[in-house]
Amino acid sequence: MPNSVLISVLATFKKQPKHNIKSLTDGLRHAIHTEALQADDCLPSSRQLASALGLARSTIVTVYEQLIAEGYLQARAGSATRVAPKLTLPMQWQAPPQPHAPASVNNHTANNLHLQRLAQQELTPLPHQPFSVAVPQDQVQLDAHWHRISKRIVQSPLYAPTGYGPAQGDLSLREQLVEYLRQARNVHCHAEQIIITDGAQQALYLASKVLLQAQDTAIIENPVYPGLHAILQDRQVNIRAIKLDEQGMQVSALLADNISARAVFVTPSHQYPLGMPMSMARRMALLQWAKQQQAWIVEDDYDSELRYQGLPFPAMQGLSPQQVVYIGTFSKVLAPSLRLGYMVVPPALIDAFRGAKSIISRSSANLTQHTIAAYMQAGYFNNHIRRIRMVYAERKAYLSTLLNQTIPQLHLLPSDQGMHIVAMLPPHTDDVAIVATARAHGIALRAISTMCVGQAHLSGLMFGFGGFNHTQLQTAVSRLQPIIDAALQQAP
User: Fold this and answer.
1) Residue 417 DSSP class
2) N or C: which end of the chain has fewer CB within 10 A?
3) How many Cα atoms within 13 Å fall on the side-chain side of residue 64?
4) What phi-psi label fits residue 99: left (phi over 0), alpha (psi between -120 and 50 degrees) or beta?
């Protein structure tokens, strides 16, 4: 690209100690969105750009690698780094019609045997055994700062439990989330757009209540989080499950099959359960499709903070705040027992979500909300995330090496974030039987096949590693090896 274009693109860039990588990444990303940089534009070499901006070459390399990972740039051996093709920018957004009032719960649906099976088998927490997910222990437990602040909050007369708090959530926590989400997730919102929930599961249920009524169509990924599948079945919604590939949801299938829907539920930063991020081209295509359909996008930002290489992928909400309902949780990074999550809703839906939250629960754990707000304000929350990210990265690498060496028949899916590893089994292997046998030997796994919808069938296992040390992981893998060998011998 001409130097004059480069200079205009980066004219607003200012060096900021400790923030140069994020600032330059945001600047180049913005230039691509505004088409100051266009598809196939050639970027200068890392050495040239480092010299022009007075930065270390390693800084430029990190920025380029981040944008390549997000799908904004492409690099090939022997040629220059270029802006990726096919980044179709969304057309002007117009809000869909206001959602219908939530339909009353159908008792027959609530008692459906299939929903009972899901609740008993798929949504029941696994015992604290390797390889259960989201069990913080030892190095990743809440630190002394948390306990000190929690004790202060409990003893303070300002926070005495005298009545219900606001259903929308404590204002101080919502204000802290505005700043945190802006910096960490590129989410654009105000405090009034945030709804504090009793975890991500309640947030998903609220989204289904506000956005859908019985017989509406909703799009989901396949395989999918069983908790979402159960919610949509309970709501008597028509479900269209779309297959995945290494770039996430195959958005082209929506166009090819001429599918229309009221809402689409996705996990673009870290797909649950398979782990891949949705590419930037797919995100843009999904936003474009949803705008044409006047449909809402529900973004479950699963495990987004726990990326171990480069910066976390920015949220889809930042690309279209008027269209995306964003869901986050404190369960993975703090503790599941806190039961606190949050939603960022478009301005047009604030009143609808406030009302729905008031009906489902008057307020959410007020003392815990005050504690998290103070923990974030003091800067301890970001420090905690950095600390556990280092611990989880090391444990993930250790478990990956251990599985590859001990059970080479497993195919580990690539992923550089999250608290679990997915290992695929040969086709037609009974992963459910493996899970049952492993449970009897003190090993807690989840089967991928139970998360598939319709005729789609994948056989694989989910390995959580966050709450277990090397000795525990090694012992569990040694116990699992003969179970896998026996299952593979019996497979057709």
Assistant:
1) B
2) C
3) 21
4) beta
SS3 string of 368-431?
HHHHHHHHHHCCHHHHHHHHHHHHHHHHHHHHHHHHHHHCCCCEECCCCECCEEEEECCCCCCH
Phi and psi (nearest 5°) for 279? -65, 160
| Beta-carbon-side half-sphere exposure of residue 165 (alpha carbons within 13 Å) | 21
Residues 456 and 450: their CA atoms lie apart, in Å, by 10
Residue 144 and residue 141: Cα distance in Å, rounded? 10
Give, as one character, the DSSP assignment of residue 451.
G
Distance CA 324, CA 314 (A): 13
- Provide the 3-class DSSP secondary structure of residue 422: strand
Nearest by Cα to 413 from 461, 375, 452: 461
Q: Which residue type does 58 have?
A: S
Which two structure tokens, joined as six digits, stand for 423?
């290992």
User: Contact 304/327 with Cβ under 8 angstroms?
Assistant: no
Write down the pTM of the prediction. Answer: 0.86
Q: Which amino acid appears at position 183 of this protein?
A: Q
The Cα 114–Cα 393 span in angstroms is 37
- The answer to whether 344 touches 300, Cβ cutoff 8 Å, is no
Assign 203 to helix, strand or coil: helix
CA pair distance 211, 204, nearest whole angstrom = 10
Q: How far does CA 342 lie from the centroid of its chain?
A: 13
Evaluate the omega torsion of the peptide bond into residue 131 and state whether it is cis, within 30 degrees of 0.
yes
The answer to whether the beta carbons of residues 286 and 317 sit under 8 Å apart is no
Give the Cα separation of 395 and 476 in Å (integer): 14
Contact 429, 435 (CB under 8 A): no
Distance between CA atoms of 462 and 471, rounded to whole angstroms? 19
Give the 3-state DSSP-derived string for 282-324, with helices as H, strands as E and coil as C: HHHHHHHHHHHHCCEEEEECCCCCCECCCCCCCCHHHHCCCCE
Q: Are the C-beta atoms of 465 and 399 separated by less than 8 Å?
A: yes
One digit per residue, the tens of pLDDT, for the chain of length 492 reads 444 456 566 666 778 877 888 888 888 888 888 888 888 888 888 888 888 888 899 999 999 989 988 889 988 777 889 898 876 555 556 666 666 544 444 445 444 565 556 555 667 778 888 999 866 666 778 889 999 999 998 888 766 666 677 889 999 999 999 999 999 999 999 999 999 999 999 999 999 999 999 999 999 999 999 999 999 999 999 999 999 999 999 999 988 888 889 999 999 999 999 999 999 999 999 999 999 999 999 999 998 888 888 887 889 999 999 999 999 999 888 887 788 999 999 999 999 999 999 998 877 888 899 999 999 999 999 999 999 999 999 999 999 999 999 999 999 999 888 999 999 999 989 999 999 999 999 999 999 999 999 887 899 999 999 889 999 999 999 999 999 999 998 877
Preceding peptide of 44 cis, ω within 30°: no
Helix, strand, coil share (%) of the chain residues, nearest 5: 45, 10, 40
